[in-house]
Amino acid sequence: MDENFRKLNSYINDLAERGDLTDEKFLALITMPDGETDEILQKKADAVRRERYGTDVYVRGLIEFTNFCKNNCYYCGIRRDNRALQRYRLSKDDILSCAAQGYDLGFRTFVLQGGEDAYYTDERICDIISSIKNAHPDCAVTLSIGEKTRASYQSFYDAGADRYLLRHETADEVHYGRLHPAEMSFSNRMRCLFDLKEIGFQVGAGLMVGSPYQTAENILSDLRFLQKLNPDMIGIGPYLVHKDTPFQEQKNGSLTLTLRLLSILRLMFPYVLLPATTALGTIHPNGREMGLAHGANVLMPNLSPVGVRKLYSLYENKICTGDESAQCRNCLEQKVKSAGYKIVTDRGDVKREP
Ligand code: SAH
Question: Ligand 1: distance of its center to the CA of 222 in Å?
Answer without folding.
Answer: 16
